[in-house]
Amino acid sequence: MIRLHNLRKSFGNNEVLKGINLEVDPSEVLVLIGPSGSGKSTLLRCINNLESPTGGEVTVDGEWVNRTDLKPRAFQKHINRVRTHMGMVFQHFNLFPHKTVLENILEAPTQVLHRNQEEITAEALELLDKVGLAEKKDSYPVQLSGGQQQRVAIARALAMRPSVMLFDEVTSALDPELVGEVLLVMESLAAEGMTMIVVTHEMGFAERVANRVVFMSEGQIVEEGVPKEIFSNPREERTKQFLADVLK
Nearest 5 degrees, angle CA 177-CA 175-CA 130? Predict the structure, then answer.
């Protein structure tokens, strides 16, 4: 479903991604862990071209994302189309404050996909029920807790019917008591077979839900494997040091 070949990204003289090779199968849940500044979030942003890779190749569902053979206008049209198949949820919720919960979810399917509002409204209400917020459809973001806003952000991404979901540290801005409600929604998506790449510091979630865990440091993949291997018997000294720090 997702393939990264020799992916590189630099900001000026700072090389943040140093030749990443990675494949994600359909319905796989891949969790990226590692210290801050290791390139995890940049990797996610390169997958949907929020950051343009400096080099290498990104393909999603067989389609070359960061095409270099197109003129700017044609490339923008191409990437807008490709992004409709990828949902991304960020650390900060980015909901429209002047729109209700339901209106936030309807915005992209109606404006970008030009879908019938009556049809998508029924789907949006189902999505709100899925994330446990059906009763909040007429509320505004300011009336919701951080955990509720993040669950709305997940529902909004799902409304585009993506084949891939990217989660970038979606619980790191939440109060500890609100983290669990968001992770439960993500776990249910994984159980339904959604292809997911998740950047997180929630090691318990990674151990429970991931099919594969990738540990990154200084822009490189240091180690990858099934959760039991990574958390119980890591091979690399850098992985051992990181886990010792975060699990103590």
Answer: 65
Q: Decide: residue 207, CB within 10 A, 0-12 exposed, 13-18 middle, 19+ buried.
A: middle
Averaged over 57-61, what is the pLDDT? 94
- In this structure, which amino acid lies at residue 23? E
pLDDT above 80 (res 248): no
Strand partners, 223: 215
- Supply the pTM of this predicted model: 0.93
Choose among 144, 167, 170, 160: nearest CA to 106: 160
Task: Give the Cα-Cα-Cα angle 84, 225, 39 (nearest 5 degrees).
Answer: 55
pLDDT digits (tens, 9 = 90+) for 148-183: 999 999 999 999 999 999 999 999 888 888 899 999
Place of tokens 């319905």: 27
Read off the tokens for 179.
Answer: 């983290």
Tokens of 176: 């500890």
Q: Quick one: 209 exposed, middle or buried, by C-beta within 10 A (0-12, 13-18, 19+)?
A: buried
Tokens of 17: 């991604």
CA–CA separation, 203 vs 206, rounded Å?
A: 5
Residue whose C-alpha is closest to residue 143's, from 181, 104, 110: 104
Measured on CA atoms in the order 125, 127, 128, 129, is the torsion positive or negative? positive
Indicate left, alpha or beta for 7 from its phi (over 0: left) and psi (-120 to 50: alpha).
beta
- pLDDT tens-digit map of 213-225: 999 999 999 999 9
Selected residue with higher pLDDT from 96 and 178: 96
